[in-house]
Amino acid sequence: MMNPISKSLLLSVTILLLSVTMYSCKTKKVIAKAAPAPVAQEPAPVEAKPEPAPVPEKEEPAPAPKPDYNFTNVQFEFNSDVLKTSSFQSLDQAAAQMKIDPNAKFILNGHSSAEGSVEHNMSLSVDRANAVKSYLVNAGVNAANFEVKGYGATEPLTKNDTEESRAINRRVELKFN
Question: What is the pTM of this model?
Answer without folding.
Answer: 0.63
